[in-house]
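ENTRY TYPE: paired fold submission
RECORD: A
CONTENT: sequence, then structure tokens
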Amino acid sequence: MPTATAGRRPIRTITFDWGDTLAANHGMPYLATQRRAFGRLAADLRELGCAVPADWVDTAMTELAVQWRASIDPARNPEHREFDFAAMLDRWVGAADALGADPHRLRLSLARCTATLTDTVVPYGDAASALSLLKVRGFRIGILSHVPWPGPACRAWFERHGLAGYIDFYSLSSEIGWIKPNPRHYQHALDQAGCAPGEVLHVGDHPDRDIVGARAFGFRTCLRITENMYPHDALAACRPDAEILHLGEVLGVATGLG
């Protein structure tokens, strides 16, 4: 548990990573979920009278996998740019000749597809109670997350799972085009936080994106401990201000760092 340091500003805003910080992500059935989501969308498009190619789902799966792998590889994506999944989805729909489809029904089908994709992650059991405690104590809360899914779909996930009422702002890589540790991602969150960098505590599981990058930007940092996900050397070298096993510990970290 950290202790207060003379001269340091109190924490005013707490930003959270999403997957594997507020919600279970690692090891979830992503490929099966994507195939189900795209398969249902293809069926919906056919019902709308669209000419959906036979290989439409396989093509979407392959293109998404290629773009995702490239985006998370620093050697191939040194600037940490986010790929545009929304544009990809529009292109896939265009390939199905859906331009003349009923726009309302098409929007519903697309929303159902992205809802299926986002529901791959499941909130941890202590997420709501931890966020509630922080709000009662007056902290602003933001989501600072690397996520390719469209912003409205991400916000809808927080609504469905009863967490949206605790969130003051969202900084999603899909909406700003940059992925932490690119400083633009942290700056986007800071602009909404409305405070100094040293008054922000960022909580996350990734040693580089959530700890090293955030600390270099001036945020205070808290590592959500995971196992069998990241190299031991990277975890040992990231040097967070604090570490937690459970989300209920964040309140003590935030008050202790003030």
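RECORD: B
CONTENT: sequence, then structure tokens
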Amino acid sequence: MNEHRSIIQKPIITEKATLMREGNKYVFRVDKRANKIQIRQAVESIFDVHVESVRTVSVPSKPKRQGLHAGKVAGWKKAYVTLRSGDSIEVLENI
């Protein structure tokens, strides 16, 4: 169970993600090394729902500066999860 919680890091709460909930689609920030099968198993285990499909996007790293110091913001992975009709994630519906 702890393995599943380390795969799903947090939900993405944006205007676009909120509008996608009407189509039973939810957006999560996930572990960069996780694959679609692991993401599906984690969502089904944590939220007790049935997942129809998972799409992933690797968000690239970006350069960042603070005065003379240059660095970068680490890249991350985003997952679009589509649930079976009739299922929903109650915790995210109230946000």
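NOTES ON RECORD B: The CA atoms of residues 11 and 81 lie 11 Å apart. The chain has a mean pLDDT of 93.
STATUS: closed
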